[in-house]
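hiii so um. not sure if this is the right channel but i have a protein structure encoded as tokens and i wanna go backwards to a sequence. like what aa goes where. can anyone help
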């Protein structure tokens, strides 16, 4: 069977599984729609959290980034995994003890203010739409390559599937669908890694293969360093980023992870406070399987790619090369007219442009693995993108139905009508996300990777100070969130979109890139929040007592909306 046939079969079976789970676990109440009834076991919640977190960025892009960036790409590994340690230790048990439905719900009640709740809703929508646009586009790219349909059609198919299980099942349907999606994506990521590790190094475990010798007796990383030197690139094992930028990016990714609303809400879905901490532990273990494998995948893919294309005749390129050319993610321009591919660091002589996002998806084809493995990777990429998209869309719909309508606009709304509003909100969010996937505006396309900075700049200080600082009041929290997210948006627009006068890397503030500026915006948020809170009225006594009770996470603290 050819690749397309295998893809139809494996992707079709996985989609049938997701739809079957959504029908079985459909939500019948607002509590089931928002937090899956608060009864998800820690193991299942850990798998669902891992799938929710490991988006198309983790499955498709991270190993590709490491493949091209080498040593510098490790900031993503450190930041994203470190964020889960923060979640497990500093946030998960306390938020579970508070027992609300959403992050804006926590902020609105902790800061006894509808203004704080509204600001949090706006921040949640900005972060979520920024992130989800990339997921829908990722779905379109996978469909375009492996099912040979236009990218737009691929996005429509993804929209239809997410619409079905997010709108019908809510958090309950999404949770158990994400458990299945984690199984699909981790299997799809690891199987080709095992194959290629054995093929190149003789070690079945890619983590061991990463440090092993190749068939010619040289160490893999020494071979890569040599190939990079020959082509004029920086050595694979040598970093080019400054220490302060590495630190800033890592910290921004860590606190951004701990502040992402679609990840935090997962800890409202378990029965007890202890279960929230256990869920974070399970999630970290499940994530580590993929994250410890990604550097090996990146190194394998980079080595195979260079040896396949460099100084080789374009006419002799294998079929996978031409298949990816059709998507526009590989571009060849014969500048010197000799018919050979010059893949060089010097941009004036380089004839090959490769999008880092294809490395994981094309890796099995480059290594000439069986067709069913190639199709399996496609199913894994779709599972990763769809699982995260569903979680983000639910955050958007619950922010509108629960935090705006139920909590502010119409407090006396019946549960039936609130559930209907949540489903309408989810449907609207799917449509908007699909539009961004089909017609990605420059703004969204530029800031997808910076959603973490936005979360770090807005949510993290409000949550962490809300738990550990009883003096933090509504004026401080609102001021900090507004200043933090506006500063982050300004920096992103200035240096990513070249607005407000633009600028180059030489103009970065403190030498920190836009990817790391969330750290600076977060620090400014904290300073503003604490300063304003000390200059205004102290927190009411009943809120102080509530905060002190949160810090002792004992008891179930069942999720509620009052």
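sure thing!! here u go:
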């Amino acid at each position: 069977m050819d690749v397309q046939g295998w893809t139809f079969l494996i992707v079709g079976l996985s989609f049938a599984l997701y739809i079957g789970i959504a029908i079985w676990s459909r939500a019948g109440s607002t509590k089931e729609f928002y937090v899956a009834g608060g009864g998800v076991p820690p193991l299942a919640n850990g798998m669902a959290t891992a799938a929710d977190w490991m988006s198309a960025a983790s499955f498709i892009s991270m190993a590709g980034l490491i493949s091209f960036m080498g040593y510098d790409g490790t900031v993503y590994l450190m930041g994203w995994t470190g964020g889960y340690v923060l979640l497990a230790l500093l946030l998960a048990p306390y938020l579970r003890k508070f027992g609300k439905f959403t992050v804006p719900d926590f902020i609105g009640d902790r800061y006894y203010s509808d203004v704080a709740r509204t600001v949090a809703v706006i921040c949640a929508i900005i972060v979520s739409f920024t992130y989800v646009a990339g997921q829908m586009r990722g779905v379109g790219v996978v469909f375009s390559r492996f099912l040979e349909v236009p990218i737009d059609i691929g996005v429509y198919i993804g929209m239809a599937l997410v619409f079905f299980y997010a709108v019908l099942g809510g958090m309950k349907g999404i949770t158990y669908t994400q458990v299945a999606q984690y199984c699909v994506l981790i299997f799809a990521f690891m199987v080709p890694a095992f194959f290629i590790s054995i093929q190149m190094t003789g070690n079945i475990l890619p983590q061991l293969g990463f440090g092993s010798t190749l068939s010619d007796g040289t160490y893999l990383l020494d071979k890569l360093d040599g190939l990079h030197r020959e082509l004029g690139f920086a050595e694979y094992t040598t970093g080019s980023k400054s220490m302060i930028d590495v630190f800033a990016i890592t910290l921004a990714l860590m606190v951004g992870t701990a502040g992402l609303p679609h990840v935090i809400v997962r800890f409202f879905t378990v029965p007890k406070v202890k279960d929230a901490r256990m869920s974070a532990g399970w999630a970290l273990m499940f994530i580590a399987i993929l994250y410890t494998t990604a550097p090996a995948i990146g190194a394998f893919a980079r080595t195979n790619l260079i040896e396949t294309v460099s100084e080789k005749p374009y006419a002799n390129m294998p079929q996978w090369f031409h298949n990816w050319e059709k998507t526009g993610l590989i571009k060849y321009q014969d500048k010197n007219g000799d018919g050979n591919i010059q893949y060089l660091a010097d941009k004036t002589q380089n004839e090959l442009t490769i999008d880092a996002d294809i490395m994981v998806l094309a890796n099995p084809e480059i290594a000439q693995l069986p067709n069913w493995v190639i199709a399996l990777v496609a199913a894994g990429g779709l599972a990763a993108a769809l699982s995260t998209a569903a979680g983000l869309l639910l955050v958007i719909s619950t922010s509108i139905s629960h935090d705006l309508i139920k909590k502010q606009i119409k407090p006396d709304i019946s549960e039936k009508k609130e559930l209907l509003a949540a489903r309408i909100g989810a449907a609207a969010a799917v449509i908007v996300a699909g539009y961004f996937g089909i017609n990605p505006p420059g703004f969204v396309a530029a800031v997808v990777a910076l959603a973490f900075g936005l979360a770090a700049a807005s949510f993290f200080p409000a949550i962490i100070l809300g738990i550990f600082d009883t003096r933090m009041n509504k004026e401080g929290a609102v001021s900090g969130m507004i200043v933090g997210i506006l500063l982050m948006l300004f920096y992103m627009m200035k240096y990513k979109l070249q607005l407000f006068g633009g600028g180059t890397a030489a103009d970065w503030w403190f030498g920190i890139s836009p990817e790391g500026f969330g750290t600076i915006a977060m620090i400014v948020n904290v300073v503003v929040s604490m300063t304003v809170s000390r200059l205004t009225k102290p927190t009411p006594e009943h809120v102080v007592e509530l905060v002190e009770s949160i810090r002792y996470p004992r008891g179930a603290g069942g999720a509620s909306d009052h």
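oh and The CA atoms of residues 43 and 161 lie 25 Å apart.
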